[in-house]
Amino acid sequence: MLTFRHAALFVACLTAAGSALAQAPAMTRVPGEVVAATATTLTVKHMSGETVEIMAPANTPVLAMKPLTRADIKTGTFVGIGAKKEADGKQTAMQVVVFPESARGTGEGHREWNRGADSTMTNANVDAVVDSKNGNDVKLSYKGGSQTITVPADAKVITWVPGTRADVMAGKKVVVNATMMDGKPTASRIMVEKDGALPPM
Fold first, then answer.
1. 84, containing H or E segment
2. Cα dihedral angle (33, 36, 41, 47), rounded to 10 degrees?
3. Where does the chain hold its CATH 2.40.50.320 domain(s)?
4. How far is CA 44 from CA 8, 15, 22, 128, 155, in A?
5. Where would one find the signal peptide in this protein (predicted)?
6. Residue 45: is it exposed, middle or buried by C-beta count within 10 angstroms (0-12/13-18/19+)?
7. What number does CATH give the domain 4-64+160-192?
8. How far apart are the C-alpha atoms of 149 and 129, rounded to whole Å?
9. The overall pTM is greater than 0.85
């Protein structure tokens, strides 16, 4: 198990693995499964297999996932679509996050994703949704570009709603945004699975 004494090394390893980090203060995103939870700490098994202890004050915001359907991907909404590139160059969605209006613009743009060399993440406005033989073709635009991504029937579509600390328990999938404070990773936000809807890992 990683202790607080090893937190800085853990963050460095996450960077090498492609996890998002910012500077001053150092920030990281920890996707994984809750091993243990107390009123002030979380122990999370990272997707990489590592285990990390995170300080989690009682007032840390909790966002609970809510399942949606493709019908909720509407013109004018702001979404984040994790997709894979097909052999023909087209993109097929694996998961779609429909952002609440208050979070519009979060992470706007198109970039590589952490699901392999052929995976992409696009956070953008939905300009149009068109039926196609493979699903719904969602036309997206963001500052500096545009993309069209097919959302098949089996793609996971989610959003989030305010949650409570009671939602964060052992066995639940989470994504924890944390900052390094006094040498310890400290949660600034917790996204947790609920009703079968997983956070965007």
1. strand 78-85
2. -20
3. 4-64+160-192
4. 16, 17, 21, 39, 26
5. 1-22
6. middle
7. 2.40.50.320
8. 10
9. no
Cα distance between the two ends of the chain: 21
Q: Which amino acid is at 10?
A: F
Q: Which two tokens stand for residue 100?
A: 């609440």
Q: How far is Cα 177 from Cα 191, in angstroms, rounded to an integer?
A: 8
Count the residues in the chain.
Answer: 201
Closest CA to 150 of 167, 130, 168: 130
What is the 8-class DSSP label of residue 155?
-
- 14: phi then psi, degrees, rounded to nearest 5: -65, -40
User: Is there a contact between 100 and 159 (Cβ–Cβ < 8 Å)?
Assistant: yes
The CA-based dihedral angle spanning residues 141, 98, 52, 41, taken in that order and rounded to the nearest 10 degrees: 130
The encoded tokens of residue 195 equal: 């009703």
50 and 10 in contact (C-beta within 8 Å)? yes
Q: Measure the CA–CA gap between 86 and 196, rounded to whole angstroms.
A: 27
Which residues are 57's β-sheet partners? none
Q: Which two tokens stand for residue 45?
A: 């098994």
**Could you report the per-residue pLDDT of 58-113, keeping only the tens digit for each?**
999 999 999 999 999 999 999 999 999 999 999 999 999 999 999 999 999 999 99
Angle at 88 between CA 86 and CA 92, to 5 degrees: 35
Asked if residues 53 and 42 have their Cβ atoms less than 8 Å apart, the reply is yes
